[in-house]
């Protein structure tokens, strides 16, 4: 999928083409997992049982091991808002983004996004979190687009189901390829930033892979492949 060899137009000088910068969201752009923060948020709002926190944490242990059943995770975490209209959800999401996500942003992540923008690069987020959370966060960060797990709605009401390819593990590559095909612009090179071994397929598909605060498995792989490892810090103790 590396753009230099596939979608690059032979008639355009390489020097005039922008790069594409791809950022994972959780533990990469923010010092927490946005879906985990959301679960605590809706529990605190009385929209879900406190038992959901324990259930979600157990599922996240599987994520860390690379064995999560993403459909089961999404079913559990979407159940509390199933039947809610998009209009009812919007103010909750806005409050969540401002009170939980904004304080958790890595300053170095914001700086890196701005670095790409100054170079004229296109910047997108690809996340294995639901689009109801990822897209508002992308708007906060003023990036060009966001790919996330798509949610099913009927008559502007959330059903609690997902639709399409889940942007998880190899699914991120599938979704990125579809996004590239839908955009006529070619790119000189693809950059990718992530913390998780679950994103190894995506890192292997780009020209410039970066391991950001990598988990042990990704750190080992990055060292073996001589990929750049970036350590981003946050001064606050973010509740996860």
From TrEMBL:
Q: Which residues form the signal peptide?
A: none
What species does this protein belong to? Photobacterium halotolerans
Gene3D superfamilies (alphabetical):
HAD superfamily/HAD-like, SG protein - dephosphorylation function
Task: Give the molecular function GO annotations.
Answer: hydrolase activity; metal ion binding
Enumerate the UniProt keywords alphabetically.
Hydrolase, Magnesium, Metal-binding
Q: What is this protein called?
A: HAD-IB family hydrolase
The record's listing under Pfam families reads: HAD
């Amino acid at each position: 999928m590396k753009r230099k060899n596939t979608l690059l137009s032979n008639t355009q000088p390489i020097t005039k083409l922008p790069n594409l910068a791809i950022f994972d969201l959780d533990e990469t752009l923010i010092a927490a997992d946005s879906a985990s923060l959301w679960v605590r948020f809706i529990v605190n709002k009385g929209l879900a049982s406190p038992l959901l926190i324990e259930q979600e944490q157990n599922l996240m242990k599987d994520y860390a091991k690379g064995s999560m059943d993403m459909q089961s995770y999404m079913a559990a975490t979407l159940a509390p808002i199933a039947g809610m209209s998009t209009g009812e959800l919007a103010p909750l999401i806005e409050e969540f983004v401002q009170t939980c996500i904004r304080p958790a942003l890595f300053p170095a992540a914001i700086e890196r996004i701005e670095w790409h923008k100054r170079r004229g690069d296109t910047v997108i987020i690809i996340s294995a979190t639901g689009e109801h959370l990822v897209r508002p966060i992308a708007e906060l960060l003023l990036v060009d687009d966001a790919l996330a797990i798509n949610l099913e709605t009927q008559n502007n009401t959330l059903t609690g189901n997902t639709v399409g390819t889940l942007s998880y593990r190899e699914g991120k590559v599938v979704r990125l390829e579809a996004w590239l095909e839908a955009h006529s612009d070619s790119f000189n090179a693809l950059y990718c930033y992530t913390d998780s071994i679950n994103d190894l397929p995506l890192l292997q598909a780009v020209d410039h892979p970066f391991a950001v605060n990598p988990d042990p498995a990704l750190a080992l792989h990055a060292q073996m492949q001589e990929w750049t490892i970036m350590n981003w810090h946050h001064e606050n103790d973010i509740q996860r």
